[in-house]
Design goal:
By secondary structure, the protein is of the alpha+beta class. The chain has nine helices and nine strands. A nine-stranded mixed sheet has the order 8-7-6-5-1-4-3-2-9. The longest helix is centred in the last third of the chain and has 20 residues. The radius of gyration is 21 Å and the shape is globular.
Length: about 280
C-alpha cells in the first residue's frame, strides 16, 4: 500500500492484473449496482472451484530453488496458496462491488487430493464486513467435481450473478432485470463475447493512461484484496478467527532467508488446524 501511495505521489500508473475491473460486462454491472439496481447489499458468495492446476516435473540439472520457481503455483511461499494466487480475483470483485473489505474471517480448508507442493486444495471461508455483511468464499482445485468460477451478490431489491462470460441482475422473484448487451458480430448476429478480452483491455487502459497523462493506480485495491485472501488462508490453516487488524500488524514472511539458486528444504509442511482429541 505504501508503494502504491508512492507511485501516486509521483504520478505513476499501476495496473496489477485484476482484469475483471477492466472487463466490460463487470464494469456495466457495477454501474447498475452503484445506481441502486439491487438496493443495499446484504450478502454474497464467490467461487473459484475447478480442477487440478498444472505442475512441472523436475529436470536433471535443476537446483531445488529453480524447480520450485518453475513450479511456483504449487508452493506456498511463491503463490500464497490458491486462495491468494487464483481465487483473489473473485474476492476482489466482492470488495470492489461492496466498496469495503472484511474485518474478520473464519474458515477451513484441507489437502484431500493434492500430491504436489505444500498447499491445500480446498478452502471455505466466511468473511465478515463491518456492517455485518457476510460473504462466503469457496475455492477448490480437485478434478472431477462440480465447478464454478463466479460471484453472487444479494441486495434488498434484487441480486446479481457474474462470471467470465456475462453478468445479470434479477429482481427478488428471479425476473431478469439487466444483462450486458454484447455487440453484434460482423454478420449482425448476436454474440456473447467482445473483440477485446479483459487481459488485453487492462493493458490498453494502462498504456492509454500513460500516454494521456491521466494516471490510474490499482495498487491499494489489489493489496486489500490480496490481504483479504491471506486472512482467509491463515484462518483455514489455524482454525482460528482472524481479524483485519491482526493482519495489518503481522510480520509474517514466507520466503527463504536467502534467495539463491541452490538447495531448499522440499519437505511439505502441511498446516493442520486445532489439536487432536485426547484418548479416553
Amino acid at each position: 500500500m505504501a508503494t502504491g501511495k508512492k507511485a501516486e505521489s509521483l504520478g505513476l500508473c499501476v495496473v496489477a492484473g485484476t482484469q475483471r475491473r477492466h472487463q466490460r460486462h463487470y464494469l456495466k454491472t457495477y454501474e447498475q449496482v452503484l445506481n441502486g439496481e439491487i438496493g443495499e447489499i446484504l450478502a454474497a458468495n464467490c467461487y473459484w472451484n475447478g480442477g487440478k492446476l498444472w505442475h512441472v516435473n523436475r529436470k536433471e540439472g535443476w537446483t531445488d530453488m529453480e524447480w520450485m520457481i518453475r513450479n511456483w503455483v504449487n508452493w506456498l511461499w511463491l503463490s500464497g496458496d490458491h486462495i491468494v494466487e487464483q481465487h483473489v480475483h473473485n474476492i476482489d470483485v466482492i470488495n470492489w462491488f461492496t466498496g469495503k473489505h472484511p474485518v474478520k474471517a473464519v474458515g477451513f480448508g484441507s489437502r484431500q487430493r493434492r500430491i504436489t507442493g505444500d498447499q491445500y486444495d480446498n478452502f471455505s471461508i466466511d468473511f465478515i464486513y463491518d456492517n455485518e455483511i457476510r460473504i462466503h468464499s469457496m475455492c477448490r482445485q480437485i478434478n472431477d467435481c462440480a465447478n464454478s468460477v463466479s460471484e453472487y451478490i444479494r441486495g434488498t431489491d434484487g441480486y446479481l450473478t457474474s462470471n467470465s462470460r456475462n453478468s445479470k441482475i434479477f429482481t427478488p422473484d428471479g425476473t431478469l432485470k439487466f444483462e450486458y448487451p454484447y455487440p453484434e458480430d460482423e454478420e449482425n448476429e448476436e454474440t456473447n463475447k467482445v473483440k477485446i478480452g479483459p487481459y488485453v483491455q487492462e493493458h490498453i487502459d494502462l498504456v492509454t493512461a500513460i500516454r494521456t497523462n491521466q494516471p490510474i493506480n490499482e495498487a491499494e485495491n489489489v493489496a486489500v484484496s490480496n490481504m483479504t485472501a491471506i486472512m482467509g488462508r491463515i484462518s483455514a490453516y489455524t482454525g482460528k478467527e482472524v481479524t483485519w487488524e491482526e493482519m495489518m500488524n503481522s510480520d509474517l514472511s514466507l520466503g527463504p532467508k536467502q534467495y539463491a539458486l541452490g538447495p531448499m528444504d522440499l519437505t511439505p509442511d502441511i498446516p493442520i488446524p486445532g489439536s487432536s482429541p485426547k484418548e479416553s
